[in-house]
Design goal:
The protein has ten helices and 13 strands. It is of the alpha/beta class and 311 residues long. The protein has two domains: 6-222, Rossmann fold; 225-310, 2-Layer Sandwich (Alpha-Beta Plaits). Strand 8 and strand 9 form a beta hairpin.
Length: 311
């Protein structure tokens, strides 16, 4: 029986290119309404998994279920699923508005609603002032926004994005991040990206893929520990008594570990608040004339991934 809360499911999927298995028994479920980040090294299987889900590649073995209706079918899933390919190319001499209208029709947007829908996504990606311009006159970042826009035409239930932030300057990356956060409520988004910092800011779930297999899939909070760890980066711990700090925190934290001038304090969220922990640690550091560089919650996704990879 299909779980109605699952938007995308891979079941023991094998996809080979010659003798190389890009996906090797890949199994994963993506809950509806979540933003899932796919993380892995080059060749781990991220792009292949998205391409398989979108029906661009045939399987050697296993199955994929889209929105509870079986494998991707252009008719059955018309308007419900969309994709942004990693290396999407746009016709250079097409006008932005005309191109998006064409994509809207392909996506199954009713003819009478195409104009309104195109204007909606043009404003959404902040290209209203360039709607009549040709693609060739746009910057790389603007073109990338067009490709993101087409993936959200008609508000599909499942959106697959392969490296949406690739090659963008910092300002454009921020723009794309804001767009993803502002998605329509209930939409499920799967993002493959090497930009782990941005995935951490956007996603609520993460999946680690290596050698075509799922090695970990959990909430962002669980993977980064941001609900249970506070990190205090200081200029130096010279003159700081860790035993003294542990004594101050005896009733609040589970443990205090120092590494490279970063104090990682683990605590039980159910019993104590991060604010309570902050007050005690910051007061102790300042009383001991320790310069504080940064306070952050949990590990960042990059360090969590590197740690997991080493293990």
């Amino acid at each position: 029986m299909t779980d109605s809360n699952i938007a995308l499911e891979f079941n023991n999927v094998v996809k080979k290119f010659g003798r190389c298995a890009a996906l090797d028994g890949f199994t994963m479920k993506v809950q509806k309404g979540t933003i899932l980040g796919l993380v892995g090294s080059n060749g781990a299987g991220k792009t292949t998994s998205i391409s398989v889900a979108a029906g661009l590649l045939n399987l050697n073995r296993g199955s994929v279920d889209i929105l509870g209706d079986g494998a991707f079918d252009p008719l059955r899933h018309a308007g419900r699923v969309s994709m942004m390919p990693q290396d999407a190319e746009l016709p250079l001499y097409a006008k932005v508005r005309d191109l998006l209208a064409f994509y809207a029709r392909l996506q199954g947007v009713p003819v009478g609603q195409v104009k309104e829908e195109v204007e909606r996504v043009i404003k959404w990606v902040n290209l209203a002032d360039r709607a009549g311009a040709s693609v060739r006159s746009l910057s790389h970042g603007m073109r990338r926004r067009i490709v993101v826009a087409q993936a959200f035409l008609g508000n599909p239930e499942l959106v697959l994005l392969d490296e949406p932030m690739s090659g963008l300057d910092p300002r454009e990356v921020i723009n794309i991040r804001k767009l993803l956060v502002q998605r329509t409520s209930g939409q499920t988004i799967v993002i493959s990206s090497h930009n782990l910092h941005e995935l951490e800011l956007v996603c609520d779930h993460v999946a680690f893929i290596e050698q075509g297999k799922l090695v970990r899939h959990d909430s962002m909070d669980a993977i980064t520990g941001r609900q249970q760890i506070m990190n205090f980066e200081v200029s130096s711990i010279d003159g700081l008594s860790l035993d003294g700090l542990r004594e101050q925190l005896a009733d609040v934290v589970i443990d205090v570990v120092e590494s490279d001038n970063v104090l990682a304090c683990s605590f039980s969220k159910s019993e104590h608040s991060a604010e309570e922990l902050n007050r005690i640690v910051l007061r102790y550091l300042l009383d001991n004339n320790i310069d504080i560089i940064e306070v952050r919650r949990g590990k960042n996704l990059e360090s969590a991934y590197i740690t997991h990879s080493k293990n």
